[in-house]
Amino acid sequence: MKADLAKLDRAFNAKVLAVVGDSGFFQWLRASENFKGKLYSVQVNPKTIKQIEEMGVKNYTSLLDIPEPIDLAIVTVGRKYVLQILEDCIRKDVAAAHFFTAGFTETDTEDGADLERALTERAIEAGFHLIGPNCMGIFNPAIGLKQNMGQYVGTTGPLGFISQSGTHAMNFSLEAHLQGVDISKSVSFGNGTVLDSAEYLEYLGRDESTKVIGMYLEGTRDGRRLLEVLREVSRKKPVVIWKGGRTESGSRAVASHTGSLAVSQDIWTAAMRQGGAIPVLGMDELIDTLKALLYLKPVYGDRVVLAGGSGGQSVAITDAFTEAGLEVPPLSQESFDKFDEFFSVIGGSYRNPIDTGNPNRLEMQRIMNIIEQDTNTDNIVMLMNASGAGPAGMEDQRDEEVKAVAQMRDRTAKPVMVCLQLTMLPRVIADARTIVKKLQDAGVPAFTSLERGALALRNALDYYRFRQG
Q1: How much is the pLDDT for 362?
Q2: Of 102, 157, 365, 437, which has the fewest CB atoms closer than 10 Å, so is most exposed?
Q3: Nearest 10 degrees: Cα torsion 117, 120, 125, 130
Q4: Between vectors from CA 140 to CA 135 and to CA 145, what angle results, nearest 5°?
């Protein structure tokens, strides 16, 4: 069903929210405690109604009795009641309803498939915007609309996310947040029987607050429609897609998760690239690629200058970027001549990678000035240390390094990024997150391994080459 984007916008930016059938732990009412609009409950059990009212939420025994228009309903009733609730939503002219209720095609049972078919046909017949079923619905942190209690609220960001998996939607929002990137709007749409991925992509493609879009998909009900929308959106903003069910065993898991049909991975990847999307293989690559596209200046060349590491690290970083499909060429003769004026080669090298060694660390500003002007390279990658166990004063030194890299980023037309060197100690991880945030606040993407940074840069290059083509 082609979406009415105005109704979808009402749902994503809801001012009136109704939770239907919540009981027990009150998962959805508790998740909505910080909702900025008006919150209502619909429940018929007297004992449960008392508990709801003790929570300070106004309850009605029918959706039809709520005395104002409803932007979004969250439906969490047993599946035998879903058709009745759908009829109430239609009669009430609810803008959209998120059906958390599961037990449909994904169960591979005849009664589940029949019920899903009836639910879908009635919603389409009425032109009703049904999100799901079998999903976690919408996350909009700016208005306090959450998919679970653990998500953050009160802030917003440039990142849109569309997911068939509720778990991936929630985990993605939290991990991206920890890496310094916040969600504008996100949706988990589960079985997607009425509104499929293309409808949400079209909506986020036109949403001004969303600058880049990530997707987790297990399949699509209308591949032609998805490609059509993808071509349109990817010309305006980047779209990065993680496909679940790439293997035979994974395809079987997909069928029992959201009931999606298996698609050959080769066919899927070719189609996504044709549509301008960047295919990725997992959560880390998805977040890293989105960060690169958000913060890097446009990437048009594949030649990389690498600076800031030691001897062994120089070998590792060269391998990582070369294996990702990028080049690590020698610097220009003009750059070599400039380095020869001051650079100590005792424990260091300026061949590319630039192994600064200890004597040259005090000349980092001069080194950065040379590499940003080098004519043999297109992109600048700096290595920085994230060691929470360092000596006193290291924090001030790192702040100066962050400042210097940020200033270089502002001066040069070349994309600038940072790869952090770290060990898996709690204090170091916490230190790394602080550095990542400082860098990204200054517009410089930072990655927690050489390989992750290299792959993100290569994916960004693929996107800009598509835009040029």
Answers
A1: 78
A2: 365
A3: 170
A4: 70
Among the listed residues 376, 370, 375, 395, the one whose alpha carbon sits nearest the alpha carbon of residue 384: 395
Contact between 84 and 75 under an 8 Å Cβ cutoff? The reply is no
How far apart CA 399 and CA 350 sit, in angstroms, is 24
Contact 384, 401 (CB under 8 A): yes
Q: Which pair of structure tokens corresponds to residue 353?
A: 């990678």
- 110 phi and psi angles, rounded to 5 deg: -65, -40
Q: Is residue 256 over pLDDT 90? A: no
Q: Hey, what are 369's tokens?
A: 């000035």
What's the pLDDT tens digit per position in 271-310?
999 999 999 999 999 999 999 999 999 999 999 999 987 6
How far, in Å, are 82, 101, 399 from residue 98 at the CA level? 11, 9, 45
Residue closest to 272 by CA, chosen among 233, 236, 226, 221: 226
pTM value?
A: 0.92
**pLDDT tens digits, residue range 160-186?**
999 999 999 999 999 999 898 999 999
Sequence letter at residue 16? V
Whether the Cβ atoms of residue 270 and residue 226 lie closer than 8 Å to each other:
no
Full set of structural domains in the chain with CATH: 5-292 (3.40.50.261), 297-468 (3.40.50.261)
317, 368, 384, 392, 401 from 407: Cα distances, Å: 23, 10, 16, 25, 10
Hey, which residues does 187 pair with through a beta bridge? Answer: 138, 162
Q: In the predicted model, is pLDDT for residue 254 greater than 60?
A: no
Candidates 296, 269, 294, 263; CA nearest to 281 is 269
